[in-house]
Design a protein that fits this description.
Elements lengths: L27 E8 L3 H7 L34 E5 L3 H4 L6 E7 L1 E2 L17 H4 L16 E4 L4 E6 L8 E9 L2 E2 L2 E2 L9 E5 H7 L7 E8 L14 H4 L3 E3 L8 E15 L8 E16 L15 E7 L10 E8 L3 E3 L2 E4 L3 E10 L15 E7 L7 H4 L4 E5 L8 E11 L1
Parallel strand pairs: 1-10, 2-7
Antiparallel strand pairs: 1-11, 2-10, 3-7, 3-11, 4-6, 5-6, 8-9, 12-22, 13-14, 14-21, 14-22, 15-20, 15-22, 16-19, 16-21, 17-18
């Protein structure tokens, strides 16, 4: 299991080869652990090692007054996961992307050359409570270990509930190799690694087992679950749609000076039946849509002609506040053995642009949903094409000269070619 609480900025990315099948729709081998768990499970097996779902690195949590909890997670807790930063192909643009996963019984993979993970009695969950029940009231089928008679060594062994069962998970977090408190070897390869939520893991195998082998393949997040080419990495997964009734695949959230935030607020989008991302922000507050390392290959703004956005502030005749939109390049904070190597740095690309009447030729009439649509030509940011290739973040900001907090909703946000 992941021995840390989910953090928000802690990546050192190392790109290594991953054994994958090039054909679209084929399955690739990997390993999985889990994070978070019911309170009773944490109490039994050491609370500090499980983390939580709502403190995720992708920023996918609704915020309000009081403490955050898993109740604030906008996605089903049994259909989410984290991906390790071991391989760039899987980690780049991972936030919000979706994968199909199925369990494979057998010795838990250590590497692709037949290596196995030795079973540790000192850290074994079975030794703590072999009769622990999962959320479905089931006991583990057997001790999660098997002896190699040739060496008399016990290795971790997983027994799946049903190897034909396929679940779909959305990536909401990262399982870091190097992070604030040290190194998590389980996330450092040499095989691809996923950290499923406890509730997703227990669909496939009993959580007493702690680790499992899986097969995975990237799919679209729509209901059709269209198969994607794993070899294309972020170029196949990241959507040009940044937000349209929901966050597009590949995009994380970075709110700042936010007083409350609802990621999918029903009935507040461009259409009466659609959702919007809504929040209240103090002066100089912002909500940024960030794509992890997308400037590496996906380059979501490299060939863009304009940015379109729908914003709802009020139902008055006046556009009460002139919000600001800007593009930037953001790096990740990098750790190694508990030491910060480089801090997170955000560099503005070109100039920022004010969304207010008279700033462009767009139609600013209030529509039926009390919103306005804007189309901002990419030239308005005065960025060169080479600069745009580095852009991985788009932010909407409240100006510093505003005296009071501002509530607004965002929908139909897209980078248009």
């Amino acid at each position: 299991m992941r021995a840390s609480i989910a953090l928000t900025t802690f990546i050192v990315v190392v790109s290594r080869a991953v054994r994958v099948d090039a054909a679209v729709g084929s399955w690739s081998r990997a390993r999985a652990t889990y994070f978070d768990a019911p309170d009773a499970w944490k109490k039994t097996f050491a609370k500090q090692i499980f983390g939580d779902l709502y403190g995720n690195a992708c920023g996918f949590v609704n915020k309000g007054e009081g403490l955050e909890s898993n109740e604030n997670l906008p996605y089903a807790r049994d259909a989410v996961a984290a991906v390790a930063d071991y391989d760039l192909k899987l980690h780049e643009g991972a936030c919000g992307s979706c994968f199909e996963v199925r369990c494979v019984s057998g010795f838990v993979l250590k590497d692709f050359s037949g290596g196995r993970i030795e079973y540790s009695r000192e850290r074994g969950f079975w030794e703590v409570d072999p009769d622990a029940l999962d959320s479905y009231g089931r006991k583990v089928p057997a001790r999660p270990a098997k002896r190699d008679n040739a060496t008399s060594t016990e290795y971790e062994f997983v027994r799946c509930w049903d190897e034909s069962l396929v679940i779909k998970v959305k990536i909401i977090d990262t399982c870091p190799c190097d992070y604030e408190y040290g190194t998590q070897e389980i996330c450092c390869g040499p095989v691809p690694h996923f950290d499923l939520s406890f509730y997703a893991f227990e669909k496939l195998a009993h959580p007493i087992q702690g680790k499992m082998n899986i097969e995975f393949r990237p799919v679209s997040c729509g209901e059709d679950s269209r198969r994607l080419d794993v070899d294309l990495g972020a170029r196949a997964r990241v959507e040009a749609k940044i937000y349209d009734g929901g966050l597009g695949a590949g995009w994380a959230l970075l709110p700042y000076r936010d007083r409350w935030l609802v990621i999918n607020r029903e009935g507040y989008g461009r259409m009466e039946s659609s959702s919007a991302l809504c929040g209240e922000f103090s002066p100089r507050g912002r909500v940024a849509f960030h794509c992890w390392l997308c400037e590496t290959s996906a380059k979501p703004f490299a060939n863009v002609s304009s940015v379109s956005i729908w914003i709802r502030i009020s139902c008055t005749d006046n556009f009460d506040v002139s919000l600001i939109i800007g593009l930037s390049h953001r790096t990740r904070k990098q750790w190694r053995n508990g030491t910060v190597l480089t801090p997170a740095v955000e560099t503005q690309v070109g100039r920022k642009f004010r969304l207010d009447p008279g700033s462009s030729s767009s139609d600013y009439e209030i529509d039926a949903q009390c919103g306005r649509s804007f189309v901002v030509p990419i030239d308005a940011f005065r960025a060169s094409s080479s600069d745009l290739a580095r852009v991985n973040t788009l932010a909407i900001e409240v100006p510093s000269d505003v005296s009071d907090p501002v509530s607004f909703c965002v929908d139909a946000l897209r980078a248009r070619s």
